[in-house]
Amino acid sequence: MTSANAGTDAVSTEDEAAADPLSYGRRGQLEVRLARTATEIDAAQSVRYHVFYEEMSAKPDAATLASKRDADRYDEICDHLLVIDHDRITGKLDADGEIPRDAVVGCYRLLRQEVAEKHGGFYTANEYDIGPMLERFSDLKFLELGRSCVLPPYRTKPTVELLWHGVMQYVTEHDLDVMFGCASFEGTDPDELAIPLSFLHHNHAAPPEWHVRALPDLYVEMNRVSEEELNPRQAARLLPPMIKGYLRAGCYIGEGAVIDYQFGTTDVLIIFPVAQISDRYMSKFGGKEKIPSGQR
Question: Which of 78, 120, 208, 215 matches a 20 to 30 Å C-alpha distance to 10?
Answer without folding.
Answer: 78
